[in-house]
Write a structure and sequence with these properties.
- With 416 residues, this protein is an alpha/beta fold.
- The chain folds into two domains: 32-277, 3-Layer(aba) Sandwich (Aspartate Aminotransferase, domain 2); 280-413, Aspartate Aminotransferase, domain 1, CATH 3.90.1150.
- The protein contains 14 helices and twelve strands.
- The protein has helices at 32-38, 82-95, 106-117, 132-146, 159-165, 188-197, 228-232, 247-261, 267-277, 280-299, 318-324, 340-350, 380-386, 402-413, and strands at 99-103, 123-126, 149-152, 170-176, 202-205, 223-227, 241-245, 304-308, 332-337, 355-356, 366-368, 392-396.
């Protein structure tokens, strides 16, 4: 059979080579907002038999052969579809990476990356400042099912602490910054420098900031993880994830992992995400300004014990966040109310505008209690280390008028 595509019958797994330059997208001349609107698709360059102003939804799981020995690309929906390919090109362009592969969720994207890269006996270095499902993968699924261990750094603000956990079997260093739910800021460049010095690539989960506010690959990251379900889509109508990185690694995941285990983002959801990305930078600016106003209000409230938001000058990594995140700090924050779980329950049950639900990054403001939902699998000691107190409320600040959110918080906190 003819190899219609250089990656089609990929057999060899991608191997990180620290002697080679990091794979990043070259000659990114267009501005971010222009890429968000145009990358991956142009109406007059559409090769189909029709002209469309927007990328078409190709809702097909299979694609016909031209002849017996001409295998099409795409060939089957589990590897790629035309609509998904436009989304992948756009996300790669926004993050500045060579290529992208999408999946059914952010958690699935993380799993597929690690599953592709590691072998039994290997390890991954990370911290406790990671999302709850990622923690479950790192403490239960991979160690018990695959004999892959995860090492949690003791002092994530200290690059040397990351270096101390890396050994000859470390295949990946994994950072989430800003972290969910406590908004810890990790120095991407400093950690990338110590990891690269030991020949290990770096993954940055950029879900909270999005490429509109932070570009990890410009700071030394080798790969980027995104939960499309959060700010990228922005309204809780899409679930999906993505890995951006070197093209050989992306195609390794596509043809040697996703091809066989599935779990892809559907074409209709890829198409919806393309529409939402067009307003990403405007939305993130509004999320950021709203969250800043809310954080400043909460920081002086007598019922609040601590506010986690890097836009506050009192945040321990405020200056680092300003450098890494282009001066804006996003829409996710958290705060600790008095009286522990009881105080959190009282406040959350009293909200009128803010909705209690399990996600973040939506146009409507959402709250959630991490100690009993997303991070319940952490031990009490681990939650204490990560700053996940019993009274912690995660607040995803939406696009409402900020005065309305502040009034809602005020009346709810008065019930504690």
């Amino acid at each position: 059979m003819k190899k219609h595509d250089k990656h089609f019958f990929l057999r060899d797994h991608w191997v990180y080579d620290p002697t080679k330059p990091r794979a990043v997208r070259e000659n990114v001349k267009l501005g971010f907002d222009t890429r968000a609107l145009h990358a991956g698709f142009h109406p007059l360059e559409n090769k189909n038999d029709f002209v469309s102003f927007t990328p078409p939804i190709v809702q097909s799981i299979t694609f016909p052969y031209n002849t017996f020995d001409e295998i099409p690309c795409p060939v089957y929906g589990r590897t790629r579809t035309p609509t998904n390919t436009v989304l992948e090109e756009r996300l790669a362009a926004l993050e500045g990476g060579e290529a992208c592969i999408t999946s059914g969720s952010g958690s699935q994207s993380l799993f597929s990356l690690i599953f592709t890269m590691v072998e039994p006996g290997d390890n991954v270095v990370t911290s406790l400042n990671i999302f709850g499902e990622g923690y479950k993968q790192s403490t239960s699924i991979f160690p018990k099912k695959c004999n892959v261990q995860f090492r949690f750094v003791k002092e994530p603000a200290d690059p040397q602490s990351w270096a101390d956990e890396i050994d000859e079997r470390t295949k990946l260093v994994w950072i989430e910054t800003p972290s969910n739910p406590c908004l810890f800021i990790t120095d991407i460049k400093a950690v990338a420098d110590v990891a690269h010095a030991k020949g290990v690539p770096v993954l940055v989960d950029n879900t909270t900031a999005t490429p509109a506010l932070q570009r990890p690959m410009e700071l030394g990251a080798d790969f980027v993880l995104l939960s499309i379900s959060k700010f990228i889509a922005g309204n809780a109508t899409v679930i999906g994830g993505a890995i951006i990185g070197p093209e050989p690694l992306v195609e390794d995941i596509r043809w040697n992992t996703t091809e066989f285990i599935g779990s892809i983002i559907q074409p209709i959801e890829a198409w919806l995400t393309l529409q939402y990305i067009e307003t990403l930078s405007m939305r993130m600016a509004k999320h950021s300004s709203n969250a800043q106003a809310v954080a400043e209000f909460l920081s002086s409230h007598p019922k609040i014990e601590r506010v986690n938001y890097s836009g506050l000058k009192t945040h321990p990594q405020h200056e680092l966040a300003c450098r890494q995140m282009s001066g804006m700090h996003g829409g996710l924050m958290s705060f600790v109310v008095a009286n522990g779980v009881k105080g959190a329950a009282t406040a959350m049950n009293s909200f009128k505008t803010i909705v209690h639900a399990v996600t973040f990054g939506t146009s409507r403001s959402i709250c959630m209690h991490p100690p009993t939902i997303t991070h319940e699998h952490l031990t009490p000691e681990e939650r204490k280390i990560a700053g996940i107190d019993d009274g912690l409320i995660r607040l995803s600040v939406g696009l409402e008028d900020p005065k309305d959110l502040i009034e809602d918080l005020e009346q709810a906190l008065s019930k504690i």
